[in-house]
Amino acid sequence: MDENLSQGRERWGGAMAALAYRDFRIIWTTNISAGAAAWALIVARGWLVYTLTDSNLLVGLVTFTAMVPRALVTPFTGYLSDRFDRRSVLATMFGVNVLHNLVLALLVLTGTVQVWQLVLLSLINGSARAAGMPASQALIPNLVPKDLLLNAIALGQAANHGSRLLGPLAIVPLLAITGVEGAFFLCTGFYVIGLVQILRVRTASTGKIDTRQGLVSNLTAGFAYMYRTPTLRALVLLTMFHCGLTMSFESLLPVLSKHQLNAEGAGFSYLMMAIGAGALVAAIFLAGVRSRETRGRLFLILGVLSGLSPLLLALSTNMPLALLATAAMGASQAGFMTLTHTMIQSVTPDAIRGRVAGVYSVHIGSMMASANLVNGAVADWINAPLVLMVAGLAFVGVMLASWQGVTLRQIYTSGLRVEAGAAAD
Questions:
Q1: How far is CA 209 from CA 174, 219, 222, in A?
Q2: pLDDT single digits (tens) 132-176
Q3: Which DSSP state fits 144?
Q4: Residue 345 CB coordination number (10 Å)
């Protein structure tokens, strides 16, 4: 190992070791900026729709259109992430989101914004974000040594989920002083920072496309690899349930903030901040976990806690208790997803990593988008806390049932064996 890198790893310490690598540091700060913009947008856009319409269904619809592109565009963008330089793909998507946020802010500033425009712009924003995800996920393993992959992914998740704290926190004063348009202009700034940062990355990263096969064959290669690899199949199926039942709550937060906690738009921001704080703590903790067996046990424990923590939010009658509940939700969900991402990256070869990341996004993105839409609709005629409780308990049942599967039971008890996933190559 290069002497400077060795000294850098010592300087950053065990939990932060991946930050010794320059390009990873850049991607890490890029993800913080992009995540802050994304989560601030969810809060500002959701509250704007709720203010304009007083409808949970329409909040759910806007959230759905922001998330559904993960099910529609990621197979193609996963292919692009293996076909072209992943840095260029990311830079293009950041540029699209800069323009999107400027248009959104100007519409609100001029008082001409309408719900249909928010739906359309949410679709554009979600498409750009979805297009960048496979490229970002596929790029990270090229920036650090294999022994630091969990550390890098955990720090990446800390940036992603911790930005739930930064983004909503940054717009709280703007919501009170300038109105929601100030929040949208700030989100534009966050995306500009991300664009500048991604242009500084030096590491070239591409996959491997079989030129003897056609476009369709190359596009579907990620599906074929995932479905014939038992470890990937089991992990993706479990994560679909996790995202649909425990992580699709954004469309419920406005009504909880207003009617259950009497906290209005600021309360919505505070709840998202608490989720981010809990997620940040969990991801940083996991960055220092090296034992395979410990990771497996934590995967089981965090999955169960992901189902139980929404019950606490559903029963909360004041803001302090609700903040505790959402922090627990953030910690358990982020920890579960961090371990999932690490295992998927560990069993996927770099040549097809972008396409597998795209397939993964299709499954969880379609589930989260659909669940947010359903939750928003159901909350208009059924008590929103009841929706949280039923979904949380359902996922606890899924986790208990998953113990019956050989692949997942082995992960829970012994940790992931990489060679088991690679055996299907």
A1: 47, 9, 11
A2: 777 777 788 888 887 787 788 778 777 776 777 777 777 777 766
A3: S
A4: 22
Look at residues 367, 71, 350, 356 and name the one whose alpha carbon lies nearest to residue 223. 356
C-alpha 88, offset from chain centre: 21
DSSP at 205? -
How far apart are alpha carbons 378 and 397 in whole angstroms? 21
Instruction: Name the residue ranges covered by the structural domains of the chain.
Output: 20-200+215-422
| Interatomic CA distance for residues 54 and 50, integer angstroms | 5
Fold of 20-200+215-422: Growth Hormone; Chain: A; (1.20.1250)
- CB 357 within 8 Å of CB 78: yes
Residue 12, Ramachandran bin (φ over 0: left; ψ between -120 and 50: alpha; else beta): alpha
Give residue for tokens 């929601």.
Answer: 180
Q: Which two tokens stand for residue 176?
A: 């009170």
Chain centroid, CA 250 distance in Å: 13
Let me know how long the chain is.
Answer: 425
Convert the pLDDT of each residue in 35-76 to its tens digit. Answer: 888 888 877 887 788 888 877 778 778 877 887 777 677 667
Q: What is the pTM of this model?
A: 0.68
Secondary structure E strands in 261-369: none
The residue to which tokens 């242009």 are assigned: 199
Would you give the DSSP letter of residue 2?
-
Distance CA(157)–CA(15), nearest Å, equals: 13
